[in-house]
UniProtKB/TrEMBL annotation:
Gene name tied to this protein: rnj
Name listed for the protein in its UniProt record: Ribonuclease J
Lineage: Bacteria, Candidatus Dojkabacteria
Co-factor note (free text): Binds 2 Zn(2+) ions per subunit. It is not clear if Zn(2+) or Mg(2+) is physiologically important. Binds 1 Ca(2+) cation per subunit. Seen in 1 crystal structure, it is not clear if it is physiologically important.
Metallo-beta-lactamase domain sequence ranges: 24-222
Subunit architecture: Homodimer, may be a subunit of the RNA degradosome.
Length: 561
């Protein structure tokens, strides 16, 4: 009885560890005194100008400290910004239980398998769907279907004895989706009737008015282009836009084109989509890219990655005539079914120019109905708020600017300003049905950088060095000395990737003299060899900067003979 009473009044903590000051690294903690669950554990693509940083992942220290009360991780859907961080934390999180739809979990398994991490996790997966109900410690979790751009996306209805929460995940309301049911308005309305204390909702497109066009409009847009194409059709999109892949296969089937798939991630996703029965592909429908030339051009559709002009991806390689066994030719129609992400405009434009110069007809999503977003616009966001009718509103998934815009939208449909919570990474949002919600404190929670297989081991000095190397190259000083610390020959100075603005040899000569002079002056007084190396490097750096205004990485090697 006592337990029930105290649970009844208990404060619930909501802590975003990512996804509130950026697009990506979505990860939210829900916590009571005894229990903790995590919703999503995604990665972000590094937007930093850092060298060799592949991804960023959330800082999970907060959860790792409390790992004994972690009851599981629930994944809303299978996009990398929601699932991609898991593989880096399995051990630190004691190989947690994970929950998600069949498609989501299959994508996670494939990722873990690729990294040889699946073994200890095999027993940890539980498939859920919109009818499931989980009890994870104090948390009761139910699900509702949403439309997005990947199958089996789910929103969450999370309850404790003291609080009721809706967490949308990524969503839009598409009234004519392709190959999936319409999002569950009725269930959301019912949840709203039960009384929701706080709504956490997707802000990705909160700056956009209206609704995105429907997936069925895009299906028609793509079909129109394929129908009119005389030669081969090449379609570039993201492997994660699984709904789009389905539309493309349907179109290929209708127009009797064989499909050649170029791109590992695309293959992988298609394999899973087939496994769960989302896409049905007859074995004679897929051909290898090398076999394309055996068919008449009007019988071919090539599906590839690289819609952002990424140099290593399929379409770019084709554009720059660098794709083994396949080249673009006159009368090919290229469809780019993706939004150009800000910052990639130039590489996409260059790629399109190249494709056109090879004789291809290029159709980009901007011209025609060839792409739509998986995230709702302002009108979708209003529908969500109107159905759920929350007392408090907390926008998530987006930059602070996006969250604020979403807050304005919430205000326009009646959420009072004082009940809109704009959180940062590490904001501890605390409250319950009786007390309402507020940010009780904020702790430091900067994302960790992933470089190769290392997480968080790349620190600022290393990044500085990489930046220096890339910008200015390296200058190496080689000294040979004896035990008495006498130079046995002239210092040798050479460089890689360092650009001399003035006469090259005179700078090198002077550099050698400076090294020699510094060594002779300091070798007797500075006993520590590392310090001596450091002083020589610094003197040389000073000189090179004076002469060239450049800061190469300087490596001084002292050899004892
Ligand atoms: Zn998504
Ligand atoms: Zn997302």
């Amino acid at each position: 009885m006592g337990r029930t009473l105290s649970k009844n009044k208990e404060l619930v903590r909501i802590v975003p560890l990512g996804g509130v000051e950026e697009i990506g690294i979505n990860c939210t903690v829900y916590e009571t005194k005894d229990d903790l669950i995590l919703v999503d554990l995604g990665l972000g693509f590094s937007e930093f100008d850092y060298y060799g940083i592949d991804y960023v992942v959330p800082d999970l220290s907060y959860v790792i400290r409390k790992v004994d009360k972690l009851r599981g991780i629930i994944f809303t859907h299978g996009h990398l910004d929601h699932i991609g961080g898991l593989q880096y934390f399995l051990e630190k999180l004691n190989f947690p239980k994970v929950y998600g739809s069949e498609f989501t979990l299959e994508l996670i398994k494939v990722k873990l398998e690729d990294e040889h991490l699946l073994g200890p996790m095999l027993e940890k997966f539980t498939v859920v769907d919109e009818n499931s109900s989980l009890v994870l410690g104090d948390f009761k979790v139910e699900f509702f279907r949403v439309n997005h751009s990947i199958p089996q996306s789910l929103g969450l209805y999370i309850r404790t004895d003291s609080t009721s929460i809706v967490h949308t995940g990524d969503f839009k309301f598409d009234n004519s989706p392709v190959n999936e049911p319409v999002g569950d308005y009725a269930k959301l309305a019912k949840i709203g009737e039960e009384g929701v204390d706080i709504l956490l909702s997707d802000s990705t497109n909160s700056l956009k008015k209206g609704h995105p066009i429907s997936e069925s409009d895009v299906a028609r847009g793509i079909e129109d282009v394929v129908e009119r194409a005389r030669g081969r059709v090449i379609i570039a999109t993201f492997a994660g836009l699984v709904g789009r892949l389905y539309q493309i296969f349907e179109t290929a089937r209708k127009y009797h084109r064989k499909v050649a798939v170029a791109g590992y991630s695309m293959y992988q996703t298609l394999g899973i989509a087939q496994k769960i029965g989302y896409i049905k592909i007859q074995s004679d429908m897929i051909i290898s890219i090398q076999d394309v030339k055996k068919y008449s051009p009007s019988k071919i559709l090539v599906l590839t990655t690289g819609a952002q002009g990424e140099p290593e991806a399929g379409l770019s390689k084709m554009a720059f005539s660098d794709y083994k066994g396949f080249s673009i030719s006159k009368n090919d129609t290229v469809i780019i079914s993706a939004k150009t992400i800000a910052g990639n405009d130039r590489s996409v434009q260059l790629m399109i120019d190249k494709l056109m110069s090879l004789g291809a007809i290029v159709k980009q999503s901007e011209d025609l109905d060839l792409y739509t977003s998986g995230h709702g616009y302002q009108e979708d966001q209003k529908i969500m708020i109107n159905l759920v009718k929350p007392k408090y509103f907390m926008p998530i998934h987006g930059y602070q600017y996006f969250l604020r815009a979403h807050g304005e939208t919430a205000k326009s449909v009646g959420i009072p300003e004082g009940k809109i919570i704009i959180a940062k990474k590490g904001s501890v949002v605390e409250g319950n049905r009786y007390k309402g919600f507020r940010i009780s404190k904020v702790f430091n929670c900067e994302p960790l950088m992933v470089s190769g297989s290392g997480v968080g081991d790349v620190l600022a000095p290393v990044l500085k060095e990489r930046e220096q190397l890339a910008s200015y190259g390296v200058v190496v000083v080689d000294l040979v000395i004896n035990k008495e610390r006498e130079l046995l020959k002239d210092p040798f100075v050479f460089s890689k990737g360092f650009v001399f603005v003035k006469n090259n040899t005179s700078i090198i000569d002077t550099a050698q003299q400076i090294v020699q002079k510094t060594f002779i002056e300091k070798a007797k007084t500075i006993k520590d060899i590392n310090e001596l190396r450091e002083v020589i490097s610094q003197e040389l750096a000073k000189y090179l900067y004076q002469e060239t205004e450049r800061e190469p990485v300087i490596i001084t090697i002292i050899n004892f003979i």
